[in-house]
Amino acid sequence: MSESIQSIFDIRASTPYTAGLPFDPLLPPPNSTRTTVAPQSALQRISAFFRPRSEFFRPRSIIPLSELPLKSNEIFGDTMQIPIAKTNTRFYFINLNGINLEKGGIQFRDLCKQIHKSQINIFAAAEHNLDTDKFEVRQILQNTARQSFTHYTMHTATSSTRADKFYKPGGTLLLAQGDIIGRIKERGNDPLGRWTWMKFIGREKRLITVISAYQVCKRPTHATGTTAFHQQASLLRQKGIVQPNPRKFFHRDLTEFIRLCKSRNELLILAGDFNEPITEQSSIARIAAKHQLVDIMFQRRPHCPEPNTYARGSTRIDYALISPELTDSVTASGYEPFHKRIKSDHRGFFIDFDTARLFGNDTPTLAPMALRDFTSKNPTNNTTYIKAKHAHLQQQQFFRSLAELQALPHGDHKKAEKLDKMLKQASEHASKKLKRFQPSWWSLKLTKPRLTT
Asked: pTM value?
């Protein structure tokens, strides 16, 4: 296994990045022998039409732990503690090796339960292998997550290539659950399905961008197919690129995305399955060096042998790169054994952050949905609330006082507390102007017979 670099800040990319010409997924490979496929009989075509519907939902199979050719299946780093310290925020990443949506998405339901049980605040994943552009796929995922979490936000990415069924190789996912969703400012994804991102707000305009990424292998197993490699190559070719290399353009586009984030003074947590170890020749190492990102797993244990994070491989291809300003907030991190919490052919890894150091303050507790005055799903109430609150603030000369406070060179704590109290009073005043919807009557005597008949 190639030895990881001791300090990624010392990397010198002296040679330009070059990439060979991949096979055209729509054409047979050069110098290959054409094979003739026997035509199907009428009986075979009819029987294929009546295949069980569950087959359309099935991603590639997951090999049992007993059959995986593992070199080692020990913990690398810290052990993930449950329950988590109340002062910490937990991040977790894994290549899922596909989500099976048959039987109403029972596998995803179990995944959500594991996320909740493990007290994971931000869950990142690669290769969900679903066509999340399909409404039915998104509906199953959202309904399942809604039943598992009190508060959550989920964002998925996939390429724009259309799939006949639910299964489509590749894709990334980010799921935040719990009080931390109150910090989310923006979320989005790469149009080719290569990464998903969320931006979290901290104190004094601190913005932390979390990215879940997946870089395809150097070359596909087959010259033609529908793998993530083939999807990206095809989409790049449609843009007029004569020699599309998905890995080369992944490096170029991710570098540009990170550059834009850093130009806005955002801090970064980049995690993914990059299908290459951190070495002097890897493109990810060049990204880390260019943008001064730290391989946090290696930095915390530079002298320990690195684990293989892919069951059939021998190197560490799943890892996280973070901004140097965030390293002091890391309280624990480690790779878990294969199949520890989630069945996959990749290891999962976690990073625990001290919340106050990560964001600059503690994460406030969100009120339960049942106790909220209104929701964003009622446009009429939203308009009424905003108008009533704005009128109350104007009456109390809130905006003039705020401008005076902002003009003070050293601020005024007492005046800021007064404005904060005034803002709270305006919120309470506006909520009283909303139309209330009484909940329907409920009776235990009527409910029990209804459930049994």
From this structure: 0.76
